[in-house]
Amino acid sequence: MTSAELLLHPVRLRVVQAFLGDRALTTSQLRELLPDVSTATLYRQVSTLADAGLLEVVEERKVRGATERTYRLRTEAAHVGPAEARRLSPDEHRQAFTTFVAGVLDDFDHYLAGPDVDLGRDGAGYRKAALYLTDEELLDLVTDLREVVSRRMSLPPEGRTRRLLTTVLMPGE
Fold first, then answer.
1. Angle in degrees, CA 123, 161, 103, rounded to 5
2. How far, in Å, CA of 56 to CA of 73, rounded?
3. Which of 57, 66, 95, 137 is most buried, judged by most C-beta within 10 A?
């Protein structure tokens, strides 16, 4: 199965997104985060991601005679590379983007369902900007963004709030 096939499945994408931020989670914790996904489906999709090497087992412990595994996302494996992306048809890209946007909508719905929503206080929002850039300037921007975000991705979670940063970059015409 290709990375695109693994990651662009709606439930598997949501599972992967739940692990973002170097989180270690058990399937029980995933069930709490994804209550609308049946237990059987969740276990099957976690198994698929683990078998493919996208999730790694970081701890095992016995719980009532069963083995409970704690997983962590192997972020270096959890992406669709440029070569694979070029092989996708326009319809496959449309399906992938729809799955991606549905995941963003799910994250935002989850946030809005919280007990104390305040977009200003929480730094939550959504924006769109138009930039006029040469190809070289675009590459510089992407490099700068990667550097800025990477520095913050390495911060430990203690004393911090997990925040999701979603980007979409495309030609405007």
1. 70
2. 6
3. 95
Helix, strand, coil percent content, the chain, rounded in steps of 5: 50, 10, 40
Strands 66-73 and 55-63: antiparallel
The one-digit pLDDT tens for each residue of the chain (173 residues) are: 888 888 888 899 889 989 988 899 999 999 999 999 999 999 999 999 999 999 999 999 998 888 999 999 998 888 888 888 899 999 988 988 888 888 888 889 989 998 999 999 999 999 999 999 999 999 999 999 999 999 998 899 999 998 999 999 999 87
Beta partners for 26? 70
Domains of the chain: 3-153 (1.10.10.10)
Q: Which helix H or strand E contains 73, and what residues bound it?
A: strand 66-73
Eight-class DSSP state of 159: T
Per DSSP, 166 falls in state -
Global confidence as pTM: 0.75
Q: Say if residues 17 and 107 touch (Cβ distance below 8 Å).
A: yes
